[in-house]
Amino acid sequence: MVIEEIYGKQAEAYESMVSRQPDLSEIIHGIRSYEGLDVLDLGAGSGRLSMLLARDARSLICTDISEPMLNILDDKLSEAYHSRNWTTVVADHRSLPVDSSSVDLIVSGWSISYLADSSQEQWSDNLGRVMDELQRVLRPGGTILILETMGTGTETPNPPDFLTGYYAQLEHRYEFSHQWIRTDYVFDTVEEALQNTGFFFGEELTNKIQANQWSTVPECAGIWWKHV
Asked: Could you give the CA distance from residue 62 to residue 98 in angstroms, rounded to a whole number?
């Protein structure tokens, strides 16, 4: 099943999986405190980061190409918060229906990579268009923070080959700072780990889970950030 079908038809399963990852609010706060800021969550998905951001942000724009994902996000935020300070927008990263110079912080988790995958001939142009849009909507003095995979089923960074060009451009062409963290998936049992990851990551990971008897599935993530 291609990734668009997973996000469109298995949004609930995806949400169940990523809900087992750690709270990243302290990591984000350490780079840029978002209390009282206007924030854009780019590729917000089912709300993995939006659930953290909405609590302290002045306003939050949640964009994603998948409406089913945004519906889950909206339901989660509505249940968690009585005062609505967020909007959801179905949008492509390369053409955002967001006003110029309107946000202080842009956070994007595991999302830009789908446009900057080197198996796509135009990946570098795609990345350039995304960066232009982010610069356009960001206010002077704002911050861009991007999270992407550095390998699932690995305890130290081992990024997929098709993303190394993207990561190199973030650091060298676009001058982002960089660090990595662990974002392990914590399940109660090995069987639960198998059931909740196979649909997304496939047989290679489930074979590792079985062989290592992992109820906690190791994962590494990279963080890139830039103060503009």
From this structure: 11
